[in-house]
Each structure stands twice: as structure tokens, then as C-alpha cells.
Amino acid sequence: MYLPQMTDFFATISADERISYPHIVLYMALFQCWNNNEFVNPISISRSKLMRLSKINSQSTYHKYMKELVEFGYINYAPSYHPFLGTTIYIKPLTKVGKSLAS
Questions:
Q1: DSSP states of the chain as a string?
Q2: What is the dihedral of CA 67, 4, 30, 10, to 10 degrees?
Q3: Whole-angstrom Cα distance, residue 49 to residue 97?
Q4: Rounded-to-integer distance, Cα 39 and Cα 48, Å
Q5: 8 A C-beta contact, residue 26 and residue 66
Q6: What's the pTM?
Q7: pLDDT-derived band at 1, boundaries 50, 70, 90
Q8: Side-chain-facing half-sphere of 20: CA atoms under 13 Å
Q9: Is the peptide bond before 93 cis (omega within 30 degrees of 0)?
Q10: Integer distance in angstroms from the first to the last C-alpha of the chain?
Q11: Do 5 and 89 contact (CB within 8 A), yes or no?
Q12: What structural domains and CATH numbers belong to the chain?
């Protein structure tokens, strides 16, 4: 799963003009968490951990790019407002949606 998803991600973003480096680093942080979860969806993670992994220091920046990854079709995202429950994120398999994301 790792190599096809990574290959398809870079192929997809190369054709998607909406994607910029904050999207990429945030997706890579999510991808690493998904990898640690043996590519089982959904993953549950705290905002603070994702911000630390992606080197995003601003909550508003984090929320902006997370929202755009959802809007652009790369992930599904259900934020948690509970202090001990992580955010639930579903990484969409790009091998199934492929080039349709960049359209």
C-alpha cells in the first residue's frame, strides 16, 4: 500500500495546481500516521501531534490546510473537540480516485 499510495499522491499533486507545500507537509504527516496504523482507516490523532509532525505552528494555518485537503478530496476529516479524543481522519486511497482529484 505504501509505495502505490505515495506514487499516486505525487502524480496527483503534480497535476493539481491548488496544492502548495503546506498541503504536502500536512499530508505527509497524515501519511506517516496512517503508515504507523498499518494503513487502516480511519486514524485518530491529536491536532498538536499533527502540527508538530508537519512543522505547522499556527492553528489557523493547520485548520486552513486541513480544510482544503478535505475540499480537494484527499482526506475526510472529523475534528474532535474533546481534550482526550483525537481527530478522526480517513486517508482516501488515491489509486481508486487518481487523476479525478486534480480535475
A1: -HHHHHHHHHHHHHT-TT--HHHHHHHHHHHHHHHHTTTPSPEEE-HHHHHHHHT---HHHHHHHHHHHHHTTSEEEE---STTSPEEEEEPPHHHHGGGGG-
A2: -60
A3: 28
A4: 21
A5: yes
A6: 0.85
A7: low
A8: 6
A9: no
A10: 24
A11: no
A12: 2-102 (1.10.10.10)
Instruction: Report the 10 Å Cβ neighbour count for 17.
Output: 8
Strand partners, 44: 88
For residues 91 and 43, is the Cβ–Cβ distance under 8 A?
yes
Counting every residue written for the chain, the total comes to: 103
Among all chains, which residue has been given the C-alpha cell 499522491? 9
56-88: pLDDT as tens digits: 999 999 999 999 999 999 999 998 877 677 889
